[in-house]
Amino acid sequence: MSTNVNDTNVTIDQTRSTLHSVSMSTTLGKVMPRIPALMSLKKTALVGALALLVSACAEDKPLNTFEPRGPRAEAIDKLMQPIWVIMAIVFVLVVFGTIGLAMKNRVKPEDYDEDDLPEQVHGNFKLEIGWTIAPAVLLAAISIPTVVGIWELEETNSDPAAGECRANADGARSGELDVMVIGQQWWWEYRYDIDCDGFFEDVDGDGEIYGPNGAGGDLDDAEWPLNIALDDDDLVIANQLVIPAGEQIDLELTSRDVIHSFWIPRLNGKRDTVPGRIHTWSLEADEPGEYTGWCTEYCGLSHARMRMSSVALSGEEFDAWLDNQLGLAEVPSESDEEVWAGYQLFQANCMSCHVVNDGNLSYGPPVVEGEELPDLEPGTVKDFESALTAGAAPNLTHFATRTVFAGAIYSQYAGIDADDDNIDVGEYFELSVDDGNPDGDYRLNAAILKRWIANAPDQKAMAPEDLRGMPAFPALSEEDLDHLVAYLATLD
Asked: Is residue 287 a contact partner of residue 280, using CB atoms and an 8 Å limit?
């Protein structure tokens, strides 16, 4: 029996055609129902991309690093502008070059031949040398201004001589301002050097102190735990850094607990605060205003709610603010029953962590009505360590002069948005004035403040059981909370 080869080939071709038709039908049967879903996915992706584009085009956002408001931030912006252009050119060349090669060498599925490869350039000496040298030259060109910029950003003011600080306790305002920034879970502490003697005490008694900006002096003093080594004579502020506009402010950054990152984008770039280490940094604001920042190093439960606020005032306004901050808090009169009751509640419930420097430094037991206050020299501050893992809680001596609290997440006054960095700083000193008008522009946010005092962990993630954060006070009645708020309102 003989077999006709031609007939066999025809049969094979028909079989292939049939199988191909079946395969195509099966594939189409699977793909067709998915087309609406794919189209919907495309629309969703397009809408999402447009939403991102629109949000990126928003104006007047406080964390916009592309709107510098100080020479340090401007230097960073000027450095980045040409780099963005270079990045865009490289992006276009690489992406569209890849797309162009793919388009040039594409073939139809039916014309595909696995042996038909695009022209190979392997071994092309000129090309290989070119795309090796070009990136190296490009990176070298970028690195030069980058390194120069890094050194410029590290520059600090010269160390002041005795009595030539911007914040001298004796009232002199003739020099530069040095501020220590301390990151804590989950708020910021600011300490102003008011004696030009640095931020540390002479712990080991050798007559030398670790000086401003880490210059000279006894390095051993800075190596002690912060709660022992820090100078108790310095002015201590919480949550809001106040600086004079148009002046370079030198910062020394550290942390009491974990690594945080200090970042006020309109004034300068980021700098980490590390336990046991001192990092220097500087800020300068061109004009008065409020500048918002955020911790940018994951630091635990409330990392996302650890903000920072910096208020720049004119030189005269800053001096007036400083004079006020250096004064003692007023001890309330017993005749004002509501405020006096709040004062006693504060001493009983809050003084184990918080400090109010009012000349009465009995931080433990409550003041007993009729007893004389301790006769201490005004301005004296007792060595103090709060019952917290970090060893400190926000200093509340002039609480009512700040516009934010609770790690700068809440506005302290109605009429001011904690996210708004456009406060009229000319009215900054009027914020603590209570004219009795419940509808006034700058009335205290009593409702929010009471909720915070009553149950802070419900407002902001904390671990008070591990001594990290503020505990709740369920035993305080509504009347107690009113009394406490009345007392806090007097701390101006």
From this structure: no
- pLDDT > 70: percent of the chain: 76
pLDDT value at residue 255? 92
Predicted confidence (pLDDT) at residue 378 exceeds the cutoff of 60: no
Q: How many angstroms separate the first and last alpha carbons of the chain?
A: 115
Q: Which domains does the chain have, with CATH numbers?
A: 62-153 (1.10.287.90), 156-492 (2.60.40.420)
User: Angle, to 10 degrees, between the axis of helix 446-454 and the axis of helix 478-488?
Assistant: 120
Gap between the Cα atoms of 167 and 9, Å rounded: 99
Cα 136 from Cα 140, distance rounded (Å): 6
Phi, psi of 38 (to 5 degrees): -65, -40
Residue pair 413/446 in contact by the 8 Å Cβ criterion? no
Structure token pair of residue 332 = 């309330």
User: What φ, ψ does residue 214 adopt, rounded to 5°?
Assistant: 70, 20
pLDDT in tens, 98-111: 898 888 878 777 77
Residue 228, C-beta contacts closer than 8 angstroms, at least 6 positions apart? 203
Region of 217 on the Ramachandran plot (φ > 0 left; ψ -120 to 50 alpha; else beta): left
Structure tokens at 133: 């040298």
pLDDT tens column, 51-80: 777 666 666 677 788 888 889 989 898 888
